[in-house]
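User: Second chain of the day. Same drill as before.
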Amino acid sequence: MYTRNEKIVPVLIEDEMKKSYIDYSMSVIVGRALPDARDGLKPVHRRVLFAMNEISNTHNKPHKKSARIVGEVLGKFHPHGDSAVYDTMVRLVQDFSLRYPLIDGQGNFGSIDGDSAAAMRYTEVRMAKIAEEILVDIEKDTVDFRPNFDETLSEPVVLPAKVPNLLINGSSGIAVGMATNIPPHNLDEIVDGLKLLIDDPEIPIKNITKVVKGPDFPTGGLICGVEEIKRMYETGRGLIKMRARAGIEPAKSGKESIIVTEIPYTVNKSNLITKIADLVNNKVIPGITDIRDESDKDGMRIVIELRRGELARVVLNQLYKHTQMQDTFGAIMLALDKGKPRVMNIKEMMICYIDHRKEVIFRRTKFELAKAEHRAHILEGFKIAIANIGEIVKIIRAAKDRNMARAKLLSKFKLSEIQANAILEMRLYQLTGLEIEKIEAEYLELIKRINYLKSILESEQKVLGLIKEDLDDLKKRYGDPRRTDIVPDEKELKIEDLIANEGCLITISHRGYIKRTSVSLYRQQRRGGKGVSGMETKEEDYVEHLFTASTHDYILFFTEDGMVHWQKVYEVPEGGRATKGKAIVNLLNIAADKKVAAMLCIREFDETRSIFMATKLGVVKKTKLSLYSNPRTGGIIAINIDKGDELIGVALTKQDDEIVLATREGQSIRFPTAQAKDQGRATRGVRGIKLNKKDEVESIEVVETDATLLVVTENGYGKRTNFDEYRTQSRAGKGIIAVKTTDKNGRVVGVNKVVDNDEIMMISANGKMVRVGVKAIRIIGRNTQGVRLINLDKGDRLVAVTRVIEEDEAKVAEAIEDENKEPTNV
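Assistant: Same format as last time:
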């Protein structure tokens, strides 16, 4: 039903919905969700700080109840609900949310675990000192004001913002059809970047980024990669990869623990720990045995304990992959520029701040100039009054009232009304000589001040100089070191990059158990020592293979039936000195009845090198190393083996190398590798040595004239002999004596080339180990029995001997290089 004088305008609902939605979205964009590029604040933040400033809730005053501040903001400036205002205040207090908190809180304001803040009636707040820098000079007409919601008060459109708040604290918000996510930065770096831009407005962004390294998150942590940082600074958008800061601590038990002390920005610590626990329970990361949160008032500390033998670096990489220990910050540098939303690069954001500060300083200077000129005008009136004090007193005494006195003063001395009023309000003590001198001094100072202020208004360079002075002052008072470190990003993260390159000892038992042990666990002993326990073995088991390697090497596993498998050294489970190790069938994809006959450590598959193989029955074969660079899960053929024969050893050779084959009965043969032509993988090979009926080849070694050949027998005897005593022969001969084998010293168990600085490790069937310096072993002729190297228990016998990597870093690197050139074959 229509009412009188009512006018109805028909409108299509589509048009009305479109208009209403646009009005709503612009209201959200401008009035709620996006920060202003000048002060970096959204309206609610601005109103909270302004309200606190109005009631003098500053850093040097006592805290006030949060509920009082919320009421002040709601009643005067922001009628949108108390929870919205209080939540804003809580965030401004949290040191894990803001790089430079703007409110100093007292009480429970939540935690990084996601705990809620206490109710506003329990907490107390006051402005942080740095927040006052955002409001400084607001009373000097530096910014525009507008009526509040009920037009009873005025509120600032923007704050003076001496602090580059948007850049140092960042901002986040979701508007309608757009969102902002600006990361926080370090104040020192932002100040340096702003000064560069002030000095050179045409400076390219790449020069700014030399001092503004990247975001600096309040929670610290790491940023991986600089490319996305550069993209964000140049385009306003980027994906910043963040990582937790974690270290590795060894425990007395031999285990290792991952210690997390900082997590990525906005990550909930409690949820992170729960996620890790779920991954452990679901066996996604099985190497973790315990997770503890030991955080306290001194900082964060999450302890992740690992099983013995687990590689901490590998587990840490898995945590980065599967949890928020690695997270992404999607940067969108969107802010309101002159009331319009705009995605800006780092330079444009800095220009917005500098332009705003120029306007603030210009308006402040005009305000101070007007105030100084007003005071100078009054002082000029005082000077006239003092010069004519008698006549002025006479005029005042003769006047009926104030208005008559003012009128006579105006007409008599040509004063302004302001000056006349000031004279009428003068007190008698101001006519003393001392006060007159003060007026003169004040007037002279004012004239200087006025000239200075006018010079600022006339020179943009002076305005910029004042901005730089303000920035230097901020840096001096509030600057601090970076919390977030920037590290290179791994385009394709390789596990070995996380693992130290160090020497280790690989042992394999007769029953097929393998482990990796640090060489530092074995101290050097004198020749003839009893040794230490090196591996637990059952009565029917004993250690059969032993060799040294670097954790970054490849191990080529050659089985007795002529197949080859490969594995990275760090993938071999680490064990203590007396532990049994892991079944090799669980590490390699080989049948349970197949045994590993030999292993070869290499760093890369070099085209110029070959693998030289030898079998128990004296067959040898040479094949290019590069043919083994693409192994399959089930292994590949290395050599075709005759029935009743088996592979016993391999060596890495160059074109001009010579080979020595040594047999169990003490025979040996030396011949050039060139006498065996290169063959493909699936071939048999050729005869290397002609054997006696009961003899078999024990070892294969590459000749090195500067070294000596160490021969060790099963009863603990050994000797060194110069290679010169082993003459070069033709392949397939019977060879010559390498050691005289008897019942006393036993058959040969190992042959190695060694130098004086080397050390060797010997191991017995019962698991006893002894480490001996090579210098302690005499150099004697071929046709001898050798000297005692180790005292064995009754019924025990030696089963393996190998050269050991030096323990200090420089020597480890050198020894590893030697191992790659001339790997140990067993």
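The chain has four domains: 41-160, 245-324, 350-478, 500-821.

User: Great, on to the next one.
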